[in-house]
Amino acid sequence: MAEVVSEISVQASPETCYRIASDMEKFPNFMPNVLDITVLDKGDDWTITRWDAKFQGRPITWEERDDFDGDNLVINYDQTEGDLKVFRGCWTFEPEEGGCRIKLTVDASLGIPMLEAALDPLVRKVVRDNCNSMLEGIKAEAEGG
């Protein structure tokens, strides 16, 4: 399983960063591998979203449940169906001097045991690149750029 943790410092409040990250439908604007995100269902503190993306030039889709904890500024997500065996993680937004520290954790697995060891570095790189794109996009939006 590829486990990735990415972090970034942002010169904006944790609440601002959380609000931007909660608006997942905008992610395709700053994630080149994400083609579309559709909200399929929504409650007061959760959504079910469908993601259409590319992995090494090939289409990949999944649906995930996103749980929003606005009091603690945490977003947890877990794939409910899709092309990966495992895709889950967590966003946290912590205050730090001058703004906010965003931490994004992702656990992903293709679910092919014989290929997992060989593909793990590639999956990890793609996941890290996408995480960094998300974080940089949120940073740019939060800092007004």
Structure, described:
With 145 residues, this protein is of the alpha+beta class. It has a single domain (2-142), classed as Alpha-D-Glucose-1,6-Bisphosphate, Chain A, domain 4 (2-Layer Sandwich), CATH 3.30.530.20. 27% of the residues lie in helices and 49% in strands. The protein contains 2 helices and 7 strands. The protein has a 7-stranded antiparallel beta sheet, with helices on one face. Strand 2 and strand 3 form a beta hairpin. Helix 1 (14-22) crosses helix 2.
Features:
145 residues, alpha+beta, 7-stranded antiparallel beta sheet, 2 helices
SSE order in H/E notation?
EHEEEEEEH
What is the correct CATH architecture? 2-Layer Sandwich
Strand order of the largest sheet: 1-7-6-5-4-3-2
Radius of gyration, CA atoms, in whole angstroms: 15 Å
The DSSP helix count reads 2
Could you tell me the number of beta strands?
Answer: 7
Look at the structure and give the CATH class. Answer: Alpha Beta
What fraction, in percent, of the residue positions are helical? Answer: 25-40%
CATH topology: Alpha-D-Glucose-1,6-Bisphosphate, Chain A, domain 4
What is the overall silhouette? globular
Summarize the main sheet.
7 strands, antiparallel
Query: Spans with pLDDT under 50 lasting ≥5 residues?
Result: none
Superfamily at the CATH H level? START domain
What is the CA-CA span between the terminal residues? 35 Å
User: Average pLDDT across residues?
Assistant: 87
Name the beta content range: over 45%
Return the domain count: 1
Topology of this protein?
Blueprint (H helix, E strand, L loop, with lengths): L1 E9 L3 H9 L11 E9 L3 E10 L2 E12 L4 E9 L3 E11 L2 E11 L3 H30 L3
Antiparallel strand pairs: 1-7, 2-3, 3-4, 4-5, 5-6, 6-7
